[in-house]
Amino acid sequence: MRVLIVGGGVAGLAAAWELVKHGHEVRLFEASPVLGGQVRTFEVGGGRLEIFYHHLFRSDTNIVALIDELGLGPDLEWIPSQVGFFARGRHYPFVGAVDLLKFSDVSFPTRIRLGLAALYLRRYKHWQAYEGKRARDWILKWVGREGYDRVWGALLRAKFGAKSEDVSLVWFWGKVHLRFASRQGGLLAREQLGYLKGSFGRLIDTLVDRLRGRGAVLETSAPAARIVIEDDRAVGVALRQPDGSERIERGDVVLATVPSYAFVNLVPELDAEYRARLESVQYQWATVLVLSMDRALSPTYWLTVTDDDCPFVVAVEQTNFVSPERYGGNHVIYFSNYCDPGDPAADESADETFERYLPFIRRINPDFDPSWVREKWLFKDRAGQPVVDADYHTRIPAHRTPIPGLYLANTTQVYPEDRGQNYSIRMGERVAQLMMSDLGGHTAPLEPEAIAAAEAVGAGSR
Predict the structure, then answer these.
(1) What residue spans define the domains of the chain?
(2) Per the confidence metrics, is the pTM higher than 0.85?
(3) Strand ranges (E), 51-198
(4) What is the bridge-based pairing of β-strands 302-305 and 283-293?
């Protein structure tokens, strides 16, 4: 069959790879000039760096398998991480369980409750029992008001803003449960995170080369204007041309890997129930300010900031994870923030954001001076984080849309896990299997488990 894919991010590329391996023809269209989505890279000091920070957890088995399949396995490094909290003017390392006992920003009983709650969530596997429940309520019950206000609630507020009190307990469980998977050897073990030498851009490049080597057509700067529906079936994609005209590409099946708000605009023929599911999902915008500097800001790779007045959630110092030598001797740091749609902060320039962040960067290091900064970049993603509220599981749109031949795969369907490279790859592979199962004509055995998992998406309350 001939498959048309709208969107050249990780999910679209993974689906394309699964399809070509089974002998199908693929044509993929990406609106931007480059492929890779959130994993696209830029140059710092002669090295490549992702526009949004990326690392792998030990539980990220799908992307590790793909890296191995593409021959990049020897270049995947597992590195002990340096993780910490910054609260009310103090750094707190959080490398192991002992560090929690030293976290004097909260009382000793609260520290014990935080540790026991985290240990419980790490071992608890029956996440379905948490559906319909709010993270806030569970944290208040088992950790208490102080632990909620000073630690976990502060993180929820920083990420989800006014929607933080409605965030699903399933989402919160996933964050804690999966994070501990990178601590091999028990609670006292140190976390190890994965990184691909030369950036994850190498994975994208290799995947693109292999796809084209198998005959796939991958077009960039090719924005879709609409999905072509004829006789109540998806039969093509209308691509917007520079002169305003449309070019129609036809195929047997269409897969869209775009955010839900964009998909609604591409397919006005969607029925009311499916459209309502799409429109019910809200996104938090994600922004990252990236600085290259002549020295380090702190000794920590991942520094979570819990002060409510701080305009960024986390400071991710890449060169406390991998060597500054990979970036021409530059020290590189990301400052990450999430904001509500329409927030004026999303329209700022890199210089404006830097000036707003400056007093808070100095909180982390009082010696910091703007003269340390060599370059600045600001990257934004309007679909950075779906808001997973307590009844989210009842509104997830299915991969199969109501229109025959039309499928959707985006981050709103990554559940119960959160968005990330690994789960986008897994989703792309699963939806490709689902499409092949529906249409037949495949030349190799399909995986029943992958098909069943894809079919379960959007099935409503479990």
Answers:
(1) 2-54+200-281+390-456, 96-189
(2) yes
(3) 76-80, 83-87, 90-93, 192-196
(4) unpaired
CB of 132 within 8 A of CB of 390? yes
Burial of 282 (C-beta count, 10 Å sphere; 0-12/13-18/19+) = middle
Instruction: State residue 442's pLDDT score.
Output: 67
What is the DSSP secondary structure assignment for residue 276, as one 8-state letter? H
- pLDDT surpasses 60 at 213: yes
Angstrom distance (rounded) from CA 108 to CA 105: 9
Supply 6's token pair: 């709208």
Residue 431 near residue 400 (C-beta atoms within 8 A): no
Structure confidence at residue 187 (pLDDT): 55
CA 122 – CA 125 distance, rounded (Å): 8
Architecture per CATH, domain 2-54+200-281+390-456, reads as: 3-Layer(bba) Sandwich (3.50)
Torsion, Cα 316 76 384 372, to 10 degrees, reads 30
The CA-atom distances, in angstroms, between 265 and each of 89, 261, 278, 426 are: 46, 7, 11, 26
Residue found by looking up tokens 């994870």 in the block: 321
Give kind and range of the element (H or E) at residue 101. helix 97-101
Q: Classify each residue of 361-386 as buried b or exposed e, where b means 16 or more C-beta atoms within 10 Å of its C-beta.
A: bebbeeebeeebbbebbbbbbebbbb
Rounded-to-integer distance, Cα 321 and Cα 316, Å? 9
Q: Are 209 and 71 in contact (CB under 8 A)?
A: no
Q: φ, ψ for residue 12 (rounded to 5)?
A: -65, -40
Which H, E and C letters describe 7-47, residue by residue? CCCHHHHHHHHHHHHCCCEEEEECCCCCCCHHHCEEEECCE
For residues 116 and 93, what is the distance between their CA atoms, to the nearest angstrom? Answer: 18
